[in-house]
Structures are given as structure tokens and as C-alpha cells.
Design a protein that fits this description.
binds adenosine-5'-diphosphate, D-amino Acid Aminotransferase, Chain A, domain 1, Rossmann fold, alpha+beta, binds magnesium ion, eight-stranded antiparallel β-sheet, Dna Ligase, domain 1, single chain
């Protein structure tokens, strides 16, 4: 009997249960390292061989010492970041333990919005015009050249100040004054008005072997800054917008050199020019129910596929790409006034999944008929907004 593969997963957010379960099903020894505050979440205990908690997964050198200590008595074969916040930590640990998978520079292209833009643009992918919010002359030149509005945004996770839409150079200079030394962690870019799309992919040997394309109802920024119902739904298969979204997704993945794994990429279709432009990409499964949305539409769950391909890769086996169904689904999520909202009144048979989360309401509708999904969404959004949506508080984490 060969030794089972040992897969160590980092999770600073409660997610990825299906990944852990599939690794277990494939006969791996599964180690989960999470944060103390997530200790009592509903992790799939039967699939986890060893469970560890830390106060803060990103704190160095603590996490390096902790994982290296585990490695004294275990042969860790791979390290996987279940949440976006863990991507860089996992990359640093791989480099430290000399394990396969994305190292620090490769992972950075999937975390740092400036790095991904520079790389994508260099490879000919359309991106919103941008500048690093660093050099005074370059910033001034950008603001001369590119008409406002612009967005000032953090390169990776929102620090002291989140993403901001700005309308004048004075505003930008005032904000950069406030940011002080934090300024180099930001970029300034053109605000591109238009619909926002997301493409969720599975990549094997540098090729996109599965991709699902969806459009958000309102752009996410309008939802989490203005309050309202977050909506996203499957595009029509073979339509111009689907084909264009899949094509730009493929160009981005090629430009960023993704070899194996899953991604969640976002694009804006410039309302004025009609063309797609690259917004951002992450080396993870889409959050806030997006994995379930993809599964309900296509029968393929990105978490499960990710586990299957990681294991196949480590074992030197071939990975049999999934055969998706061409169904349709729509996801609706909102912050709720009620602690545990009752969603029973949304009783159409197409409701295939409901979110169970405090002060949230969420559901997925699915059908083989795209129009039916669109009609259900159009009927449900005003009802959710009226009876459930909490308007004052922003979402604790923007849906992504
Ligand atoms: N250049 C831009 N033009 C128009 N809208 C933007 C732009 N950048 C970001 N947004 C809006 O802000 C949202 C969040 O931005 P994004 O870059 O995806 O960061 P994150 O999802 O990590 O917060 C987007 O979904 C979009 O609605
Ligand atoms: Mg985004």
C-alpha cells in the first residue's frame, strides 16, 4: 500500500467543505488549519483527519513555524489555500517546504490587482486604463489623460480604506494624503460603466477544461455600496456575450500562466465601446454561493473538481474533465433585517438551494429554460428588497 497523499488546507474563512470531502473520498490524509474563531463552524469532521486552529493564519513566522512543526512527523504533499486571504500564505509555505504548486510570484498575479493588470496588459488583454497610485508625475499625467470618474482601489484586501469612486484630481490628492505610506498599496483606474460578468474555470495543464460564464444583475459595487439584492445568472450558451466572456477569460489565464487549479475572474463590458475588459481574477472558487450556482446550472461543482485535479496531478494521473450540462441558474443574496429569515414563501419548484446564514437571505433558482430563470429573478428581487433587505449596514464581506 503506498502512503496516502497528505493534503494540508488553509482556511481563514468557513468554506471549502466539498474540497475536503473529495480529498477524503480520494483516500488522502486531510489536514485542515483554520482560525480559532471558525472552530465551531460546521466543518465536515468525517473528512478531516487532523484539525488545527491558529489565532491568525496570515501571521508570520507563526504559521511557518506551525506548519513546519507538523512537517517534522508528516510528509506533506501539497498545501491548498481555500480562501483568497490564504493564497499568499500557502505560496510562501510551498516555497519554504519546497512543495509543488504556485510560488510567491505566481500567486501574486492572482492577488494583487496591480500585478494582474500589468501582466494582462503586457500580453495584449484589454484592461481599464490604470496607474499605480505612487509616482506624483505619473498620477498627474494619468488624471490629465484619462477623463474621470476613476476608482481608487486597494491592490489586495481592503486595508484602511476600501474601493472608492472618485471624480476629481483634488479628491485623489486628498485621499492620497490621507493614505500616507499606505498609498503604494493602491491603484487608480478608469471607471468603466457597464455590466459586470464572472467566469468560473477549471484549469488542467494550462488549458481551460471547464468554464461557466455569468452576468451580475447590478454591478457588485452598486450592491455593496448602495445596498440591495446581489444577483447573478448563467449567460445564454453560444451567445455573443458568452463567447466573448469565455474568450477573454482564456486570454487572461494564458497571460497569467495558470497551470492547474480553479479561478474566479471578473470582466466589465464597457457600455460605450461594447467590448469586454478585464477586472480581476482570483485563484479560488467563487464565494457567496457562486460554486452552488455553477453546480445547479451545469452539474459541475468547482470545489469537487479542484480536489479531483489536485489529487490527479500529485499522483501523476490524468484528470478526466467534467461533462457539463447546459442548464441555467440564478443566485440571489441579500443582507436581511431578520436574524434567520423565513424563505418558505419563495416556493417555486425551481428554488433548488437556500443560504443558511445569520442576517442573510439567499437562494438559487435553476431551470433548463433560461427565460424561466430570468422571470423568477425579476419576480423575486423586488420581494426580497421589500420584505427582507437591510439597507443600513453594508455586507460584512462583499459577495464575490
Ligand atoms: N474600473 C472599474 N470600473 C467600473 N467599476 C469598477 C471598476 N473597478 C471596480 N469596479 C466595481 O467595483 C466592484 C469591486 O471591484 P473589484 O476590482 O472586483 O474588487 P473586489 O471584488 O476585490 O472588491 C466591481 O465588481 C465593480 O462593480
Ligand atoms: Mg470583484
Amino acid at each position: 500500500m503506498p502512503q496516502p497523499l497528505t493534503v494540508l488546507c488553509l482556511a481563514s474563512y468557513f468554506k471549502g467543505g466539498l474540497f475536503l470531502e473529495e480529498c477524503h473520498r480520494q483516500g488522502c490524509h486531510v489536514i485542515l488549519v483554520t482560525e480559532e474563531k471558525l472552530g465551531s463552524e460546521a466543518w465536515p469532521g468525517h473528512a478531516i483527519d487532523e484539525f488545527f486552529m491558529m489565532p491568525d493564519l496570515a501571521r508570520q513566522p507563526d504559521i511557518t513555524h506551525a506548519v513546519s512543526y507538523l512537517a517534522r512527523s508528516r510528509t506533506i504533499d501539497c498545501i491548498v489555500a481555500l480562501d483568497d486571504y490564504d493564497v499568499e500564505t500557502a505560496a510562501a509555505l510551498r516555497e519554504h517546504l519546497r512543495l509543488p504548486g504556485m510560488g510567491i510570484s505566481a500567486a501574486r498575479l492572482f492577488r494583487d490587482k496591480l500585478a494582474m493588470r500589468v501582466q494582462a496588459r503586457a500580453q495584449g488583454v484589454s484592461v481599464p486604463d490604470f496607474v499605480h497610485a505612487l509616482n506624483d508625475a505619473q498620477l498627474a499625467d494619468f488624471m490629465q489623460r484619462v477623463p474621470p470618474p476613476w476608482v481608487l482601489k486597494p491592490r489586495s484586501e481592503a486595508g484602511s480604506m476600501g474601493i472608492k469612486k472618485v471624480h476629481s484630481a483634488e479628491e485623489v490628492w486628498a485621499l492620497s494624503e490621507t493614505l500616507g505610506d499606505r498609498r503604494s498599496y493602491y491603484l487608480l483606474e478608469q471607471f468603466v460603466a457597464g455590466d459586470v460578468y464572472h467566469v468560473d474555470s477549471v484549469i488542467w495543464d494550462g488549458a481551460v477544461v471547464f468554464a461557466a460564464a455569468q452576468r451580475y444583475g447590478q454591478p457588485p459595487m452598486s450592491v455593496y455600496q448602495g445596498g440591495g439584492v446581489f444577483v447573478t445568472s448563467t449567460l445564454a450558451y453560444g451567445s455573443d456575450e458568452e463567447r466573448t466572456a469565455l474568450a477573454i477569460n482564456q486570454s487572461v489565464l494564458a497571460a497569467l500562466g495558470m497551470e492547474h487549479g480553479v479561478t474566479h475572474a471578473e470582466f466589465i463590458r464597457d457600455q460605450a465601446a461594447g467590448r469586454f475588459t478585464f477586472l480581476e481574477i482570483a485563484a479560488r472558487v467563487g464565494g457567496a454561493g457562486v460554486d452552488k450556482l455553477v453546480e445547479m446550472a451545469t452539474g459541475v461543482n468547482p470545489w469537487t473538481e479542484w480536489a479531483r485535479l489536485e489529487v490527479a496531478h500529485l499522483r501523476g494521473e490524468t484528470y478526466g474533465a467534467p461533462q457539463p450540462r447546459q442548464g441555467f441558474a440564478g443566485l440571489l443574496v441579500s443582507l436581511a433585517r431578520q436574524e434567520w429569515p423565513h424563505t418558505g414563501a419563495f416556493d417555486d419548484p425551481e428554488v433548488v438551494w437556500r443560504l443558511e446564514k445569520r442576517h442573510h437571505i439567499g437562494m438559487i433558482v435553476a431551470s433548463d429554460d433560461r427565460q424561466r430563470v430570468q422571470d423568477l429573478i425579476a419576480g423575486y428581487v423586488p420581494r426580497i428588497a421589500q420584505e427582507f433587505t437591510a439597507v443600513e449596514a453594508p455586507l460584512d464581506k462583499p459577495p464575490d
